[in-house]
């Protein structure tokens, strides 16, 4: 499940090409497939999978909706920490996006360890088609101990993960720049971490094209 990271940054021409490829991919047919509450319920591993993880209320559902240009396809719960299943969405018969349960909600601290480090760890470690975990961090708040724990868990599971900052339209530019430097430094200490941290906003569209481009590279070819 681990991948080799390229040491060279793409050229502007390559980035424009990849953004267009990502735009076309994420404009394709996108459907909910299944919600699994137990490992035995997981759909057969066929397409490459990208799993989205993050603390409850980090903006995970909003980001998935922004990526796909749909409204309310991935539902945001009014009660953070409520979702307790893996939701599978198929994109254009080329990629599967997996919406993972939120972690770190204060009222469910014990359940986080039991659920996430039980079923979730088993999924992460044993899913042969899992290409990457997109780990979402809220740009407005400090990196929590639970975020650090999940990064260590992903290291142990040997699953490549990429940190994506959400709600980046809120902090002032200097504050956001400092947050990016802080998180990039944290990411550098984790063996399984993809080195490129992205800043995004579901409200303004910041970083959405670049994230589509990143994920499109992992999809099955046309």
Describe this structure in words.
By secondary structure, the chain is an alpha/beta fold. The protein has helices at residues 12-26, 60-68, 109-126, 145-157, 173-187, 208-216, and strands spanning 30-36, 49-54, 86-91, 95-99, 130-138, 161-166, 198-199. A seven-stranded mixed beta sheet has the order 1-3-4-2-5-6-7, sandwiched between helices. Helix 1 (12-26) crosses helix 6 and helix 3 packs parallel to helix 4 (145-157). The longest helix has 18 residues, at 109-126. The chain is globular, with a radius of gyration of 16 Å. It starts with 11 loop residues before the first helix and ends in a 6-residue tail after the last helix. Mean pLDDT is 86; it is low at 1-7 and 76-82. InterPro entries: G_ENGB_dom (IPR030393), GTP-bd (IPR006073), GTP-bd_ribosome_bio_YsxC (IPR019987), P-loop_NTPase (IPR027417).
What brief labels describe this structure?
single chain, about 220 residues, alpha/beta, 7-stranded mixed β-sheet, about 20% strand, nucleotide-binding
Span from first to last CA?
22 Å
Element order: H for helix, E for strand: HEEHEEHEHEHEH
Report the count of strand segments: 7
Kindly provide the radius of gyration, computed on alpha-carbon positions and rounded to a whole number of angstroms: 16 Å
Strand order of the largest sheet: 1-3-4-2-5-6-7
Strand content: 15-25%
The best one-word shape is globular
Derived from helix and strand composition plus strand pairing, the structural class reads: alpha/beta
Q: Give the number of helices.
A: 6
Helix content: 25-40%
Mean pLDDT: 86
Unreliable stretches covering 5 or more consecutive residues: 1-7, 76-82
Biggest sheet, open or closed, and with what strands and sense? 7 strands, mixed
């Amino acid at each position: 499940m681990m991948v080799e990271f390229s040491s060279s940054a793409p050229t502007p021409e390559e980035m424009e090409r990849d953004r267009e490829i990502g735009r076309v991919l994420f404009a394709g047919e996108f459907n909910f497939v299944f919600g699994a509450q137990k490992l035995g319920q997981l759909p057969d591993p066929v397409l490459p999978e990208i799993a989205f993880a993050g603390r409850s209320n980090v903006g995970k559902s909003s980001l998935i909706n922004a990526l796909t240009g749909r409204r309310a396809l991935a539902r945001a719960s009014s009660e953070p920490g409520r979702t307790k299943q893996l939701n599978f969405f198929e994109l254009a018969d080329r990629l599967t996006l997996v919406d993972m349960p939120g972690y770190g909600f204060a009222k469910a601290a014990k359940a986080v360890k039991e659920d996430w480090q039980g079923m979730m760890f088993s999924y992460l470690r044993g899913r042969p088609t899992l290409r990457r975990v997109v780990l979402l961090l809220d740009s407005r708040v400090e990196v929590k101990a639970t975020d650090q724990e999940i990064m260590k868990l992903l290291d142990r599971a040997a699953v490549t993960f990429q940190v994506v900052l959400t709600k980046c339209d809120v902090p002032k530019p200097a504050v956001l720049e400092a947050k990016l430097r802080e998180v990039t430094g944290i990411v550098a200490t984790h063996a399984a971490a993809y080195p490129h941290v992205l800043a995004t906003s579901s409200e303004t569209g910041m970083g959405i094209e670049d994230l589509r481009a990143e994920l499109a590279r992992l999809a099955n070819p046309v």
